[in-house]
Design brief:
Largest sheet: 4 strands, antiparallel
Number of helices: 3
Order of helices and strands: HHHEEEE
CATH class: Alpha Beta
CATH topology: Beta-lactamase Inhibitory Protein, Chain:B, domain 1
Radius of gyration: 20 Å
Strand order of the largest sheet: 1-2-3-4
Oligomer: single chain
Shape: extended
CATH architecture: 2-Layer Sandwich
Structural class: alpha+beta
C-alpha cells in the first residue's frame, strides 16, 4: 500500500473507533453523577480533573485569586441535593453536601 492509502485506512478506522458506541451506561451521558458513593470517593488533595472524572462537570464554578493562593469552588446539584467542593491551588481543600440528609 502506498502512503496515501495507508493514511486513508487509518483515518477511516480512527473515525469508526470514535463513533462506535462505548460500554458506558447512558447515565454517564444523562443524569447526575452526584451520589453518596461518588461524593465519598472525593478526598482531600485530589485535582480538579480527578473530581470531574468522579462527579462530572460542575453546574457552577467560581474562581478567586487570593493573595497567596487560588480558590475555586465547584457546585454540583441534583434536584434538592447538592455538593460543594472547594479547591486551594487546584487541589481539594474541603467539601460539603446535604446528601444523605432529608430535604
Amino acid at each position: 500500500m502506498n502512503f496515501v492509502m495507508k493514511t486513508l485506512v487509518f483515518v477511516c478506522l480512527a473515525s469508526v473507533a470514535l463513533l462506535a458506541p462505548s460500554g458506558c451506561s447512558r447515565k454517564t451521558f444523562s443524569g447526575s453523577k452526584l451520589t453518596d458513593l461518588n461524593y465519598d470517593q472525593v478526598t482531600l488533595g485530589m485535582t480538579k480533573g480527578q473530581v470531574e472524572t468522579i462527579l462530572g462537570q460542575p453546574q457552577s464554578a467560581k474562581e478567586e485569586d487570593k493573595l497567596i493562593y487560588k480558590r475555586t469552588t465547584y457546585r454540583y446539584e441534583n434536584k434538592e441535593k447538592f455538593a460543594v467542593i472547594t479547591f486551594k491551588n487546584d487541589e481539594v481543600d474541603s467539601k460539603d453536601t446535604n446528601l444523605g440528609r432529608e430535604p
